[in-house]
Amino acid sequence: MKLNYIALAVPFFAIFMLLEYYISVKKNKKLHHFNETVANLNVGIAERIADLLTTGTFFFVFSWLHANFSIFSIESTATTWVLLFLATDLLWYWYHRFGHTVNLFWASHIVHHQSDDFNYTAAARITVFQAFARGLFWCVLPIIGFNAEMITILLLVHGTYPFFTHTQLVGKLGWLEYIIVTPSHHRVHHSSNPEYLDKNYGDMLIIWDKIFGTFIEETTEPKFGLTKSLGSYSFLWQHFHYVLELTVAFRMAKTVKAKLKVIFGGPNDIDARIRSLLERKFSKKTVAIDTKYSKKLTNSIIAKTIVTMIVLFLTILFSEFITAFNVILITVFIVLSVIATGAMLDQKKWIFHLDFLRGIIIGYLAFSFFPNPLLHFVIALFGAIGVFFYQTIHSKYQDFLFSN
């Protein structure tokens, strides 16, 4: 049986998240907030399932560029692996730096910095758009002459190491602070303290920041998140609010130069009042980080998140045995799930409609995987009851979740 063992990344990272939470509780450190944790996981879940659909795309691109445009033919040796490691880390530094200083790239990278918590769950806030932007930078490597297999292995390393720098439980690491990116360095990078802004872009090596003048040592306690907290846990708002801000700013710009500055300028070039305007237009209410949710709502969110992660794990693990159409359907199910839990955190009451769609998808998938006539009948019966009593079920659903 050909299993996709990339799926093991899901429980691997989840175990470390739980371990960090356990240690922080034992040390009486408040490093996790419920809504922040769920919102962080939502972004990571969506990226993982989207990555399944795009797996192989950049491998194909790297292979094609190497076959058609490579300047050199670089063989796999100890020396070339070291050179590739240095090249990938240097490219990552510049990709990351542009991700903070160019609006076009910040529009995708901003999602990674929205969490007001800083822990292993915040490391999961990687969007598929961010992964795409990173891949574009790495297209330089096959043109130089490195093959796709080598590049892909280094991509996996670069995707794993930064996870462990997203923690407050590890202090400074002595002489290692002069060479590698440590949790202390990355805490600085994620902070909104004025003196820490746009610093420490390195991924694995801190030497690039020291060479290019963007290094600063952690000396004061960081305050994490954006300079202006988003105040929303909506999956959709978190992903697209800055794109909307850029769209409004672009339309307001009077000249071609001003419009280009919206796209290729930095975040400081965008009028901060635009976000407030959009928040009023979309009636977004600010949700506090320490919001207390009812037990029913909390348990529902936890259950939905766990189920979604299990579905994600099984889908990746058995992806070779699932039809492309069903993978797409499962992807829609997962995306609807993370949108729904994000809306539940914001206490939006329209989530029933999403859950009804999720139920339809579950019904179809159940019959697709287990084509039993009796099961078909039961699914059809429940579907008919759901449609016939839609409003009644909707009302009961809201009462269950949002009543104390």
From TrEMBL:
One GO term of the biological process aspect: lipid biosynthetic process
- Endpoints of the signal sequence: none
> Can you list the GO cellular component terms from the UniProt entry?
endomembrane system; membrane
User: Where is it mostly found?
Assistant: membrane
Residue ranges of domain Fatty acid hydroxylase in the record: 81-214
Query: Per UniProt, which keywords does this protein have?
Result: Lipid metabolism, Membrane, Oxidoreductase, Transmembrane, Transmembrane helix
The record's annotation in InterPro entries points to: Fatty_acid_hydroxylase, Sterol_desaturase/TMEM195
Q: Where in the cell is it found?
A: Endomembrane system
Q: So where does this one cross the membrane? A: 6-23, 52-72, 78-95, 135-157, 301-318, 324-343, 373-393
Task: Identify this protein by name.
Answer: Sterol desaturase/sphingolipid hydroxylase (Fatty acid hydroxylase superfamily)
Write one Pfam family the protein is assigned to: FA_hydroxylase
Q: Which organism is it from?
A: Flavobacterium aquicola
Membrane topology, as annotated = Multi-pass membrane protein
Tell me the organism's taxonomic lineage: Bacteria, Pseudomonadati, Bacteroidota, Flavobacteriia, Flavobacteriales
Care to name a GO molecular-function term for this sequence? iron ion binding
